[in-house]
Amino acid sequence: MKKLSAQQKFLHKISHKRIDPPAASATTDVTTLVEELFLSYNAGRMREACRLFTSKMLADNVTVGLSLSGALTPAGIGMSCLVPLIEAGFVDWIISTGANLYHDTHFALGMDMHQSRPGLDDLALREHQVIRIYDIIFDYENLLGTDRFYRQLCRSEPFQKTFSTAEFHYLVGKYLAKREDDQKAKHRSFVAAAYRAGVPIFTSSPGDSSIGMNLAALQLEGSKLQIDPLRDVNQSAGIVWNAKKNKGRSGVFIIGGGSPKNFILQTEPQIQEVLGLDEAGHDYFLQVTDARPDTGGLSGATPQEAMTWGKVDPNQLPDTVTCYVDSTVFLPILTVYSLANHEPRKPKRLMDGMEDLTKALEAGYLKNRKKNRKE
Question: Following DSSP, what letter does each residue of 316-344 receive, concatenated?
Fold first, then answer.
């Protein structure tokens, strides 16, 4: 056997595999596509991301949090990807922009969205009461009808109290799920799917969406419905604290960036810095973004930078992947790959035990305060 040189030994040490892909064919499946043809550049990072998610983040002892930003549900991503991931038990809790939840509601209510193309005459669209999101178009009545749905629903007695956003969306999901059942059209709304699976959905900026706008209008009517965002902070931190203190792990799957990204990551500084509890950071970090890190914006911030804030465990940096690719390209690929390569997980149903999770966090904080006062 020929002895390897020092240079060859080093090359083999850092090599994943030799670049020698098979030819693509009409029968190439998604797993083969990812494993054998996604070799380098952003395709290589997509392969690493699919592997990280499926082989490590979907372990039974990992609590998977998903953050959503960008207009995903208008493009059908809720039905095509989020519902299957939730129903397979691959997502345990979610932070989303309110816009994604609002547009998700259109589908539960049986409203249509249409594919079109960019570059349409927007003045003509306005004159015909057609709304455009890049190459998606829909009737203005979708907005008016969805507004009416939320106002009518939230005037009802069950909504006349104070909620966290997770509690509010869970109750909304109950009614959307019933609407789907009545229409015999399940699997259209990811908010309804989250309700059925006990998956909490938080919104980091509850006033920054059409849902929040309609709730604000109800407040002018004298509604007792209130959203308490501070309850969100403690409930989301309680989810992560519970996962880690029971010798489990926490994984974050970040689609885009913005406020949902910060909210899902700030759970660790809340636990460590503010509450003073012993923790090291999230264990797994998977991000899909088109934002650059050099502009200083959070959307492009790397896991290495997040580590300096205590958001990511420094010992787990090898288990972090950032893909610079459009999330509407990545999510369908990851969804099919993970469903093909991992058995469904038993849902953790975190909403069922949300009160206990928050109480456990509170107990740890009060114990820590008492200890520090003695010192």
Answer: GGGGEEEEES-HHHHHHHHHHHHHHHSPP
pLDDT in tens, 116-168: 999 999 999 999 999 999 999 999 999 999 999 999 999 999 999 999 999 99
Give me 147's structure tokens.
């507004």
CB 128, CB 195: distance < 8 Å: no
- The domain ranges of the chain are 47-368
CA distance 219 to 210: 14
Annotated catalytic residue within 161, 184, 247, 311: 311
Q: Does domain 47-368 have CATH number 3.40.910.10?
A: yes
pTM: 0.92
| 311: annotated active-site residue | yes
Helix axes 190-197 and 98-108, enclosed angle (nearest 10)? 90
Strand 226-227 versus strand 284-289 pairing type: unpaired
Per-residue CA distances from 200 to 64, 68, 349, 350, 351 (Å): 12, 13, 8, 7, 6
Q: What's the one-letter identity of residue 8? A: Q
Residues 14, 19, 20, 24: is their CA dihedral positive or negative? positive
Residue 189's nearest CA partner among 87, 89, 336, 260 is: 87
**CA–CA separation, 18 vs 39, rounded Å?**
10
φ/ψ of 249, rounded to 5, equals: -130, 160
Which residues sit opposite 132 in a β-bridge? Answer: 137
**CA-wise closest residue to 46 among 323, 294, 313:** 323
